[in-house]
Amino acid sequence: MNLIVNGKGEIYQEDCRTVADLLNLPAWNRRLVIVELNGEIVAKEDYSTALLGDGDRIEVVHFVGGG
Q: How many angstroms separate the CA atoms of 56 and 59, rounded?
């Protein structure tokens, strides 16, 4: 499946069907993030039901600590 994540087009396996599946990939696993799917913020409790489709645009913003 072709997805555009943070402005970069990539091909993902067909088993990457939901926002939760995407966030379980090593690049995002265990990070505190906010997800926007096609211009709409996805609530954390909806990650496992928010379906991804070919050509979707996803923005994943993660927080970095520091001082």
A: 10
0.85 cut: is pTM over it?
yes
Alpha-carbon span 9 to 6, nearest angstrom? 8
Which one-letter DSSP state was computed for residue 25? Answer: S
Radius of gyration, CA atoms only, the chain: 12
Measure the CA–CA gap between 28 and 15, rounded to whole angstroms. 16
E strands, the chain, are 2-5, 8-11, 33-37, 40-42, 57-62
For the stretch 18-54, pLDDT in tens is 999 999 999 887 778 999 999 999 999 999 999 999 9
pLDDT band at 67 (very low <50, low <70, confident <90, very high): low
